[in-house]
Amino acid sequence: MGTDVRSSLRDERGASAVEFAFIVPLLLLLVLGIAEFGRAFQVQGTISAAAREGVRTMALQDDQVAARAAVRNAAGSLNPAITDLQIAIPQSCAGRPVGSTVKLTITYPMPFLTDFFGAGLTLTGTGVMRCNG
After folding, report:
1. 62: phi > 0 → left, psi -120 to 50 → alpha, else beta; which?
2. What is the pLDDT of residues 64-105, one digit of tens each?
């Protein structure tokens, strides 16, 4: 009778190991997905803040070089860094009517930490402000 109990316990441990082996990949995928989403959320917040800083500089100084520098400074933590080609400033404030606005858009290709979800995604941050504050 004692051998039947030990055999039954061994079978249950084996079944638990098989069930665990089925669940681990799903749990790993879930954890990686949460990490990737959290990073994308953080990068999006950084890009939005950088766009606000850049458009504020553009609206007050009407200087595209200074606005691009403000964006790069505000987004200094991003890797890879934002380049001038990723910052679009379609118009300046010069010669425009009172109350007109200036717009700055950042397009950032964010690579994923892992390749489970693809190579990456493109995030966009936009800032709009009235010229001269």
Report:
1. left
2. 999 999 999 999 999 899 999 999 999 988 888 888 999 999
- For helices 64-74 and 2-61, give the axis angle rounded to 10 degrees: 160
Angle in degrees, CA 80, 111, 116, rounded to 5: 155
Helix (H/G/I), strand (E/B), else coil: 121? strand
Residues 6+ apart with CB under 8 A from 47: 75, 78, 82, 106, 108, 123, 124, 125
Token pair in block for residue 123: 């995030």
Q: Is 119 within 8 Å of 94 (Cβ atoms)?
A: no
Smallest CA-to-CA distance from 66 within 55, 78, 80 is with 55
| β strands within the chain, DSSP E | 87-88, 101-111, 120-130
Q: In degrees rounded to 5, what are phi and psi of residue 5?
A: -65, -45
Residue at token pair 């950088």 = 50
What pTM, to 2 d.p., does this model score?
Answer: 0.80
CA angle 125, 97, 127 (to 5 degrees): 10
